Amino acid sequence: MVDTFRGEAPAPPAEEPRGCLFALSQPPLMIFLTVIGSLLLMAALHDLFLL
């Protein structure tokens, strides 16, 4: 039988990459998206009702 032990412990698994839900949970990004969304909504309502 062949000995396959190399004398070193296996490397710990790398940290998993963080996905889109992590990015969306960040307060500065949510504030930015809220401001942009509200500006788009106000522009759309202005076009629909006042023009």
**Oligomeric form of this entry?**
single chain
Q: What class would the helix/strand composition place it in?
A: mainly alpha
Helical stretch tally: 2
Give the overall average pLDDT. Answer: 81
Q: In words, what does this structure look like?
A:
There is one protein chain. The chain has 51 residues and is an all-alpha fold. It is 57% helix and 0% strand. The chain contains two helices and no strands. It has helices at 20-24, 27-50. It starts with 19 loop residues before the first helix and ends with a helix.
Concise synopsis of the structure shown:
The chain has 51 residues and is mostly helical. It has helices at residues 20-24, 27-50.
Task: Compile the SSE list and pairings.
Layout: H1 20-24, H2 27-50
What key phrases describe this protein's structure?
mainly alpha, 51 residues, 57% helix
